[in-house]
Amino acid sequence: MIFMERLNKFLAHAGIGSRRHCEELIVRGRVTVNGQVVRALGTKVEASDAVCVDGQPLHGEKLVYWLVNKPRGYLCTNFDPAGRPLAVDLVPHVSQRVYTVGRLDEDSEGLLLLTNDGDLANRLMHPRFGVEKTYHVQVAGRPSHEDIEQLLKGVWLSVGHVRARRVRRLKAQGESTWLEIVLNEGKNREIRRMLARLGHKVLVLRRIAIGPLRLDKLRRGKARRVTLEELQRLRKLANHRATENAEKARKRTQNKKGDKISSP
Length: 264
Known about the structure:
Blueprint: E1 4-6, H1 7-13, H2 19-27, E2 31-33, E3 36-37, E4 44-46, E5 51-53, E6 56-58, E7 65-70, E8 99-101, E9 109-115, H3 118-125, E10 133-140, H4 145-153, E11 155-157, E12 160-162, E13 166-173, E14 176-183, H5 190-197, E15 202-210, E16 213-214, E17 223-225, H6 228-262
Parallel strand pairs: 9-15
Antiparallel strand pairs: 1-4, 2-3, 2-5, 5-6, 7-9, 7-17, 8-9, 10-14, 10-15, 11-12, 13-14, 15-16
Helix pairs in contact: 1-2
């Protein structure tokens, strides 16, 4: 039996990016199969096919999943012209081309998922899937009850209206306070910018969880494989969110059709 796979999925599994990004590459004519430019999104390939992106040959890779505790000062990119340390430097033993799922800025630390599974990465990080990310944040001062309520209601930033899904006070430490903040989006420096708007500087920002995947006792700068049980829970969560979104879209379509039928 010959195993066939959709081209966009093949590219995502090879570590090129999310399926949507891979579809854009196909439409732009940057992908060839057996020497021929392919623009049809429904194209299927098999293991023996020669697939290239921008002339560079690809091979289907074994999917790998690594949990990393990123220290401050590391970048979530696979290349930096200035030569600064990269999160992928923490997994030199991984032969596959992996990339980070959900970036942490240079000054932040904590849980990163490194993988070459572009499809799962997209589902975990895209806002429409609503996968929760949990952070422990040390802020200067004592955020008031009103401040926490405002984080839940949301604040306006240049990227639009952003808000936390849940916030709870953990403990006081000297003149600072530790908070646990849960987001289900995660725009660039979102927590820092929300708290700055409320007059509280972030001193430490550490991500401790992505959905069911938790940092726990993994030491800073270390990495470990994601267990099979964790991976199954991640996939189940991502698939459940996708099913929920599809059902909501179906109901919206039905409601629109109903409105048209009932209108005079």
